[in-house]
């Protein structure tokens, strides 16, 4: 991010802190609770936003070297993502061309080949069919026509994108709505290490899960003993980029930064930026760390969702954590780690101070509130909830969600 923009954001946050005001959208809306419970809406969402839409699955660090792979099963199509021998990111339908059985069962790993456990048909990590036991029973089968079905896949600026349809298209400039250059400037593809994932399965609609990331009004109230000790509540620097937005909250570090000359101001020393990427990604980062929050509906149940929080740290942060525990650096030249290694576990335990607070706050505070809203919505008596003037990210998210499904706009509430 360019320095003038960083300074503009920091000055806006300082202004709000000094004037004891929050961001003000100037409008309020009613949001019908039926969007959190309606099976028809849920079916349409599943098709439009997950079956027929590009999906951000990970940072490049999740496939740190040729031969590494990961599997994804969150949006209806089983995906096998690989980095082939030339280092190219590729994605396939995780299904054998013989009888449709999964060829990769582990969540992640390293392999040059994938063998179907049913009949041992074997595929390379380029997706090529390379082996058929007793091939004579299948005649003169053309192996070049029976490789794994390849999905559109794009790696750009440290992000891995997949389209769930073989005939789908990925246009990241259109997808990111002008945000692409800013994302590129953070260099998320450089020197990051995947350090684990937390899965949160809860009784709340996936949009309610997204809503918990949509305002800072609750920070000094719900989070007063957790994140409220780290961040200023009721202040927010906010900007929209098509269907996406940037959401910047101030840490307590902003209080000392104002004492420095502007040329020394650094956004990541005093804030925690978060990008919302339509339709289901909350992408939070700071110095030496990135957390990718992917929120998915649960097919067939509008009142349930699954959130995957993937944590990445810089190689330097992991090495320093290991050294602080009296161990040797454990990250290899291939930018990967062995979760069974004792030294690496020490590093993970040190860095878990961050991940534990982050994950537990989402699950035990934010999502706990969302579950009670879900129950209220399902009871059928609460027709609407309110989005205040200080909650523009919620306005933006729900406007675009409704627009994409051809629904009527949110009802605006006249201001007194």
Describe how the helices and strands are arranged.
Elements: H1 3-19, E1 28-32, H2 39-51, E2 55-59, E3 68-72, E4 79-83, E5 89-93, E6 108-110, E7 113-115, E8 122-124, E9 129-131, E10 150-151, E11 153-156, E12 159-162, H3 172-176, H4 180-185, E13 192-202, H5 206-211, E14 237-241, E15 244-250, H6 254-257, H7 267-270, E16 271-277, E17 281-286, E18 289-298, E19 301-314, H8 315-324, H9 342-379, E20 384-387, H10 392-404, E21 411-413
Antiparallel strand pairs: 1-20, 1-21, 2-12, 3-4, 3-6, 4-5, 5-10, 7-8, 8-9, 11-12, 13-19, 14-15, 15-16, 16-17, 17-18, 18-19
Helix pairs in contact: 8-9
Structural description of this entry:
With 416 residues, this protein is α+β, with helices and mostly antiparallel strands. It has two domains: 3-52 and 178-413, Naphthalene 1,2-dioxygenase Alpha Subunit, Chain A, domain 1; 55-169, 3-layer Sandwich (Rieske Iron-sulfur Protein). It is 28% helix and 27% strand. It has ten helices and 21 strands. It has helices at 3-19, 39-51, 172-176, 180-185, 206-211, 254-257, 267-270, 315-324, 342-379, 392-404, and strands at 28-32, 55-59, 68-72, 79-83, 89-93, 108-110, 113-115, 122-124, 129-131, 150-151, 153-156, 159-162, 192-202, 237-241, 244-250, 271-277, 281-286, 289-298, 301-314, 384-387, 411-413. The strands form five sheets. It has a seven-stranded antiparallel beta sheet with strand order 13-19-18-17-16-15-14. It has a five-stranded antiparallel beta sheet with strand order 6-3-4-5-10, with no helix packed on it. A three-stranded antiparallel beta sheet has the order 20-1-21, covered by helices on one side. Helix 8 (315-324) crosses helix 9 (342-379). The longest helix has 38 residues, at 342-379. The radius of gyration is 23 Å and the shape is globular. Mean pLDDT is 90; it is low at 328-349.
């Amino acid at each position: 991010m360019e320095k003038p923009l960083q300074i503009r954001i920091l000055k806006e946050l300082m202004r709000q802190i000094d004037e004891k005001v929050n961001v003000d959208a100037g409008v309020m809306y009613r949001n019908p609770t039926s969007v959190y419970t309606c099976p028809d809406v849920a079916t349409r969402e599943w098709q439009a936003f997950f079956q027929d839409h590009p999906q951000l699955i990970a940072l490049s660090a999740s496939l740190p070297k040729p031969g590494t792979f990961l599997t994804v099963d969150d949006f209806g199509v089983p995906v096998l993502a690989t980095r082939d021998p030339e280092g190219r990111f590729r994605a396939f339908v995780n299904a054998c061309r013989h009888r449709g059985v999964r060829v990769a069962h582990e969540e992640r790993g390293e392999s040059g080949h994938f063998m179907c456990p049913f009949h041992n048909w074997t595929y390379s990590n380029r997706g090529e069919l390379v082996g058929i036991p007793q091939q004579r029973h299948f005649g003169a089968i053309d192996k070049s026509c029976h490789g794994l079905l390849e999905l559109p896949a794009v790696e750009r600026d440290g992000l891995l994108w997949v389209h769930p349809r073989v005939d789908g298209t990925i246009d990241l400039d259109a997808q990111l709505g002008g945000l692409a250059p800013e994302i590129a400037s953070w260099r998320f593809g450089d020197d990051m290490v995947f350090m684990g994932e937390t899965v949160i399965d809860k009784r709340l609609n996936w949009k309610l899960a997204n809503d918990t990331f949509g305002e800072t009004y609750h920070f000094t109230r719900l989070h007063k003993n957790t994140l409220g000790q780290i961040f200023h509540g009721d202040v927010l620097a906010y900007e929209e980029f098509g269907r996406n937005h940037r959401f910047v909250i101030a840490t307590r570090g902003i209080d000392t930064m104002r004492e420095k000359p502007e040329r020394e101001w650094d956004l990541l020393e005093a804030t925690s930026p978060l990008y919302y990427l339509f339709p289901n990604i909350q992408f939070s980062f700071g110095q030496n760390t990135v957390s990718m929050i992917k929120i998915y509906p649960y097919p067939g149940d509008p009142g349930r969702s699954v959130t995957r929080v993937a944590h990445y740290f810089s190689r330097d942060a992991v090495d320093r954590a290991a050294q602080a525990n009296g161990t040797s650096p454990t990250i290899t030249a291939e930018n990967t780690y062995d979760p069974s290694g004792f030294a690496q576990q020490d590093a993970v335990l040190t860095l878990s101070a961050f991940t534990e607070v982050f994950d537990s706050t989402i699950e035990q505070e934010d999502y706990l509130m969302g579950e009670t809203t879900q129950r209220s919505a399902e009871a059928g008596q609460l027709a609407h909830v309110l989005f205040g003037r200080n909650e523009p990210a919620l306005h933006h998210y729900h406007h675009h969600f409704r627009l994409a499904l051809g629904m009527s706009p949110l009802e605006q509430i006249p201001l007194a």
